[in-house]
Amino acid sequence: MDRTCPFRRKPDSYQPLRSPCHAPFKLTQPDNQENRWDLRDPDGVMIIQELLMVAKTQGRGWVDYKYPNPTTNTLDQKTSYCEYYEGMMIGCGIYKEVD
Description:
Blueprint: H1 47-58, E1 60-69, E2 74-85, E3 88-95
């Protein structure tokens, strides 16, 4: 990894979603190499599969779901943007502020 990059990985961050859109893949955190293909939030949203489906069928879009927030240690609303680009799904997400 380029140490001059301002976006280098920090201990509580994770890698962006990247995968050929025709095959299952691993979404991994630095300390966790388990396959997350069947990752489901408490409301039943299949997070990885939904992101991949949106990227493949719409080209780009947003997916809302609940996910553990490492900053607050609570289950919070999160939204992720995904895009299909050159055979890969690329995405990023952010936790939503709750009023």
